[in-house]
Specification:
Layout (H helix, E strand, L loop, with lengths): L2 H12 L5 H11 L3 H8 L3 H9 L7 H16 L3 E4 L8 E4 L4 H5 L6
Antiparallel strand pairs: 1-2
Helix pairs in contact: 3-4
Length: about 110
């Protein structure tokens, strides 16, 4: 494998962006609605609605930034792991650990 291929794979791994389905699934796993997620990541609820209903393959820079904020929120605050599709598995979300259930289901920050 050439160095350019390795660099491309590393870049893609660092930029794994959750899909609309993954965002909805993560939200359902922790039991929060769109309004709570919007407040937690600092965007308008309409932004979350658009993100969760949009299935376009191309993502503009603003949408990518919001999706990365959402991903960081779920990973860092709610202990959720995003599973990106590969040759072995499809996409999905899960708790990082058994103890993560309490963290994932905690009340939103004040």
């Amino acid at each position: 494998m050439c160095i350019l291929t390795l660099m491309k794979q590393l870049s893609e791994a660092q930029e794994e962006i959750p899909t609309a389905r993954m965002v909805r699934a993560a939200r359902a796993l922790v039991g929060i609605d769109q309004s709570v997620l919007a407040e937690e990541v600092g965007v308008d609820r309409k932004t979350i609605v658009r993100i969760e209903t949009d299935t376009r393959q191309k993502i503009d820079a603003r949408r990518r930034d919001v999706l990365m904020l959402i991903k960081e929120y779920f990973q860092d605050v709610r202990n959720i792991e995003f599973i990106f599709p590969s040759e072995e598995t499809g996409e999905g979300v899960r708790l990082r650990s058994a103890e993560g259930f309490e963290v994932a289901n905690q009340a939103p920050r004040e």
